[in-house]
Design brief:
Layout: E1 7-8, E2 13-14, H1 17-27, H2 37-45, H3 52-76, H4 81-100, H5 110-129, H6 158-172
Helix pairs in contact: 3-4, 4-5
């Protein structure tokens, strides 16, 4: 489908640098509960060479499966809130990964990818409700100076970036993180 990358079976990830970045970024969330290394390695080993669609669909299936586990654990209400929280975090990241496998999004598929984005955010918010500490959502109104398009410089999903790169590690060490 997207012939600008090749698959490397010996390394179990893509040679195209964008895919290396996304897959390694996802695996890098494992110490903070945002990815399970066993789930990740099993999925990546099953990918079809040169098929971004296969990659996206497999991450979507894993995201949905992980979300179902989280919902089941949360409904049991028998002390599984920590496991449910971790499953929601993983599901959030897997939904993100399902949309990130397409660096150029076909316009006709934008509603589909937007739905993945919203599902990622929803799972992230469910995980935040199960945190051991208080998590507050803060909205800072912004009035643009003009109508020119705005794009993010680092990450399209700043909530996950902030959690992964600052908040989660700080909370584990007893700091108040913002």
């Amino acid at each position: 489908m997207y012939p600008f990358y090749t698959y490397s079976p010996s390394r179990h990830y893509f040679e195209y640098k964008w895919y290396n970045l996304e897959l390694l970024r996802l695996l890098g969330a494992a110490p903070y509960g945002g990815c399970d290394a066993a789930e990740f390695l099993k999925l990546v080993a099953s990918l079809k060479p040169n098929d971004a669609g296969d990659c996206s669909h497999k991450f979507l299936a894993l995201a949905e499966q992980t979300q179902t586990w989280a919902e089941q654990m949360q409904m049991q209400k028998s002390g599984h809130s920590s496991a449910a929280k971790r499953a929601y975090l993983r599901s959030s990241n897997y939904f993100r990964c399902a949309q990130y496998m397409f660096p150029v999004m076909p316009e006709k598929e934008q509603p589909y990818f937007l739905s993945l984005y919203h599902r990622s955010i929803s799972n992230f918010e469910q995980a935040m409700k199960l945190m051991e500490h208080e998590v507050r959502r803060v909205r800072i109104p912004f009035q643009p100076q003009n109508d020119s398009p705005k794009v993010g410089a680092y990450s399209r999903d700043l909530a996950a970036k902030d959690f992964q790169e600052s908040g989660a590690a700080a909370w584990r060490k007893g700091y108040s993180a913002t």
